[in-house]
Amino acid sequence: MEYIHGTSDFVLDRNSAVTLGKFDGIHMGHKKLISIVLDEARKKGLKSCVFTFDGLPLSICPQKYQHFLTTNSERRAYFESLGLDVEVEYPFTDDFLHMDPEHFVKNIIVDKLKAKVVVVGNDFHFGKNRAGDPEYLLNAGKIYGFETIIVEKERFQDREISSTYVRETLKCGHMETVNVLMGRPFSVSGVVCPGNKLGRQINIPTANIYPTISKLLPPNGVYASVTQMGDRKFYGVTNIGVKPTVSDENNVSVETNMFDFDSECYGKHVEVFLLHFIRPEMKFESVEDLQKQMEKDAQFAKDLFMI
C-alpha cells in the first residue's frame, strides 16, 4: 500500500475511488465504505484510496482530549490488510480546518486524489463550518466528473455505529460489544519492553508494552486476550494498568501472560487483542496473593478459550 503522510504536496498517479474521514477505530460502518471503494476500484480500474488525517492540532483540540481507538500506525496496518492501494494521511492544520468546500473539492478531491468515485456516509461533512455535505458532493461531481455514492450508516442494537459509540462502550469495558462494533477484536500494539521481571520470579512471565499517550484504552483491569507475534498467536491474560501491588509509578502498561510461550520476546512487535473483561485491577496485600489471583485469572481465561 502506498502511504502518503506529512505533506499536502502530492498527486496520485492515476484516477481513484476514494472514501474520506477520520476512520478512528475502523469500525463496521467504516468497513462498509471501504468495501464499496474496493469494489468500485476493481470494476472500473481505479486506485482504491482512503483519505484521512494525521492528527488534530493542539490549537483545535488540547492534548488531554486527543485519545483515539487506533494509532496512526495501527490504522495504517489495518488499511493495508484490507487491500487498499493508497492511504493519504493529510496534515490537519488550521488552514485545512478553514478550507471552504469548493476549494476542498477542486484542490484535493479532483486535483490531488483524481477521484472518479467518492464514497461517503450520509452524515459526512467537510470544509469550513462543516458546510460541505453529501448533497454538495453530488452537485460538485456533475461539474468535475466524479460519481458520489452515499451510504447509510450501519446499526447495532438500534443505534447507528460510530466511533463515539465504540468509545463509549470501550470505556465501560464491554469488550464483546466493542468487538462486534469494530468487526474484529480491539487491540493494543507495541514493542515488548523489559518490566520489573516479577512475573519470572513467580513463574508467570509477562510481556510488557507501553501504549502511546494518545491511545484510548478500556478500564484498568484483567482481560482474556490473544497476542499476535509475527505469524504466531498465543492465548493469554492481559493486565492493563499501573500494577499497584508491586509499583508506585503511574505509567500505564499492557502486561500479558501468554500461555505456552517460553522464549525471549524483548524488542519484538506484538499486537494484543482484548476479548473479555475478567476483573478490575486491584492492589493485593502481598505478592503471594497476587500470584494466586493471577493463577485464577489464567484458569478463567483457559476455560473461556476451552484450552
SSE layout and pairings?
Layout (H helix, E strand, L loop, with lengths): L1 E4 L10 E5 L7 H17 L2 E7 L18 H11 L3 E5 L3 H4 L3 H12 L2 E7 L12 H11 L2 E5 L3 E2 L2 E2 L2 H9 L3 H8 L3 E6 L6 H4 L5 E3 L11 E9 L2 E10 L11 E6 L10 E12 L6 H19 L2
Parallel strand pairs: 1-4, 2-3, 2-5, 3-4, 5-6
Antiparallel strand pairs: 7-8, 9-14, 10-13, 11-12, 11-14, 12-13
Helix pairs in contact: 4-5, 6-7
Number of strands: 14
Instruction: Please tell me the overall pLDDT.
Output: 92
The CATH H-level superfamily of the largest domain is: HUPs
Counting H and I runs of at least 4 residues, what is the number of helices? 9
The percent of residues in helical segments reads 25-40%
- Shape, per Cα inertia axes: elongated
Q: Which structural class is indicated by helix and strand composition?
A: alpha/beta
The domain count comes to 2
Which stretches are low in confidence, meaning pLDDT under 50 for 5 or more residues running? none
Strand order of the largest sheet: 1-4-3-2-5-6
What letter string, H or E per element, gives the SSE order?
A: EEHEHEHHEHEEEHHEHEEEEEH
The N- and C-terminal alpha carbons lie at a distance of 37 Å
Could you say what the CATH topology of the largest domain is called?
Answer: Rossmann fold
Q: So what's the CATH class of the largest domain?
A: Alpha Beta
Instruction: Tell me what the CATH architecture of the largest domain is.
Output: 3-Layer(aba) Sandwich
